[in-house]
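Q: Predict the bound structure with nicotinamide-adenine-dinucleotide.
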Amino acid sequence: MIIKPKVKDFICTTAHPVGCAESIHRQIEYVTENGRINGPKRVLVIGSSTGYGLASRIALAFGNSASTLGVMFEREATEKRTATPGYYNTVAFEQEARKNGLYAKSINGDAFSQEVKDQVISEIKENLGTIDMLVYSLAAPRRTTSDGTTYRSVLKTIGEPFTEKNWILGNDTIEEATIPTATEEEINATVKVMGGEDWEDWIQALSNAGVLASSFTTVAYSYIGPELTYPVYNHGTIGMAKKHLKKTCDKLNESYGASGLRAYVSVNKALVTQSSSAIPIVPLYFSILYRVMKDMDLHEGCIEQMQRLFQKKLFAGSPVPLDKEGYIRMDDWEMKPEVQERVMEIWSQINTENLKELADTDGYWEDFYHMFGFHYSNVDYEKDVQP
Ligand code: NAD
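A: Predicted complex:
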């Protein structure tokens, strides 16, 4: 099959296995060239197949020789349809890990379910004994709880609707978009899906099963961003969920701290991933941010962020550097005053005519296509491949 990108709005419905493998190779190369990480050696990554979770897994495996067990929710290929990129990424990661003598297994299923938790626990018991780290990097649109209720997360504001400039990705124009306000029910549902409840369920299940090592680190990922995007992010439904995630972190430290657990929330940089490109208004901010951070030589992708998180912050000795609210700040470069001042200056000037000049739309699209395994100059996309 010759596989070409099929892009619709903010999603590509095809993925290229060779291109996804190329993206894995490049991330491994980055990690192996950038020094060792002195971290835990038996790691469970929830949300391990794309974006920040995948980069965490690669950094901890190839920069730290960790055994990694991954959980993801991805679709296999069929006769007519390619697999999702996370599926191809995982196959390529496992192949490389095994070539390097590293244990790497992945469970493809719903991380919210008890069934997947049970599968993970038996795999740990059978092959790892205990684990000493859990990376919680889920970005999910819905969650079905044990009583059969399905909650759907929404990206809406709280209180007032919000109108701002928006980049229409399909035709490169700037128009205004209005984000509607969420109902109480939608806020609660978003917290159920993207808050900390399931993270806590995981820790509890692992602890009850006796598979947590006596010294144990867990980290979940969050985002705050600039005031400009507060109505849609930090003060919106997703922001509420992220505040719940932080409360959960504090609760985990209280409940399990005495038994050797350390929980953290790392606030990461804004980056194009499958979930973030679905948030309205935010892609324009991303592409301006890319331009500014690249011009200032401060730009990082997921792998650079995760390598720096583990090497320079989380496992660089104690105490782990935290801000006054207790967060690890991997958005430290994004939030530098000189970066934000320049971004806001551009934001006020940007329109359809100067979009390509003032924002790094090409960089945005390059990251977007790379996520699905396309646009790598050293991959032959005319060649027949087995999906
Ligand atoms: P992503 O879409 O690239 O990855 C999501 C992962 O979750 C994938 O591995 C997917 O398979 C998995 N997943 C989704 N639903 C699942 C389910 N039900 N069961 C098992 N696995 C499931 O997302 P990302 O952007 O890397 O986000 C990861 C975390 O990082 C999120 O908490 C997000 O809020 C946070 N974050 C993202 C950004 C950003 O700009 N992308 C910035 C800061 C923080």
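A: Residues 47-53, 71-74, 86, 110-112, 137-140, 221-223, 268, 270-271, 273-276 surround nicotinamide-adenine-dinucleotide (CB under 6 Å).
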